Amino acid sequence: MSKLLSRLCLAGSLVLGLSGCIVSEKLDYQLMVQEDAKWVADEQFTDTIIAVGKPAAPIQGVEHAIVFAGEKRSYLVQSAKRDREFIDILNQVDLAYFSFKPMPAFNAPYFRIRIGEQGCTSAQGCIATILWFEKPTHLLAAGETAKLEGFDFTCHDGFAGGMTRCTKNLWRLPVTVAPAVKNINTLSYRLRQPTTLKFYHYQPDKALAEEKRLKALMPFAKAFDIITFPIQFIMVEGIK
Question: Residue 226 forms beta bridges with which residues?
């Protein structure tokens, strides 16, 4: 919706001036905030992500997933089509300059899993994120940005410090919740800044028993090992 309004404003500003666009963008933002306000956090499920990786061995039914390793549980995140998109990107990108970034919401610098989101294909909820690649332009290898653009990233250069930035927004990524990874104490790479993860319900049913909800969130009873990536998270800009 916001993209459509922005495009209409860009075209209409040539004829009508900027005042109508400013009003439209403010209205669009207010509607987004009102919609977000209907999602209520389930604080009992709040966790802290400490590493990103992939399962050390394939897990049947959750193929091609990456793992957000939390202190309490692990979260297997698949592409929207549950295909190899994540794995293919991570196999070809320079991970030293690659990050996951929370999708901005309420100016809150943490990841959110929404349970029951329309269009989400997982009963455990879906997550949104920005794939973020930022590297000094003079260090880019030949064809590096073209490769990312082949994965539908949008790339621009000329950022402060001579940086090139490539980003891709991803929505409604299905999440499968599992116990904390087995090798949590011996991970090769950890996040320099552990990041909060929260679960949200849309107008949740407060009468639903806690143990029933937790059981629905954790279909796997067996823990597993992961292989971590040297990936960090970037918090929402402007948030300290």
Answer: 55
Contacting residues for 139 by C-beta, under 8 A, at least 6 apart: none
pLDDT tens profile 177-227 = 999 999 999 999 999 999 999 999 876 455 454 555 656 666 666 788 888
Q: What is the pLDDT of residues 147-162, one digit of tens each?
A: 999 999 999 999 999 9
Q: Could you write out the three-class secondary structure of the chain?
A: CHHHHHHHHHHHHHHHCCHHHHHHHHHHHHHHHHHHCCEEEEEEEEEEEEEEEEECCCCCCCCCCEEEEECCEEEEECCCCCCCHHHHHHHHCCHHHEEEEECCCCCCCCEEEEECCCCCCCCCCEEEEEEEEEEEHHHCCCCHHHHHHCCCCEEEEEECCCEEEEEEEEEEEEEEEEECCCCHHHCCCCCCCCEEEEEEEECCCCCCCHHHHHHHHCCCCCCCCEEECCCEECCCCCCC
Does the pTM of the predicted model rise above 0.85?
no
Residue type, 136: P
Rounded Cα gap, residues 53 and 99, in angstroms = 12
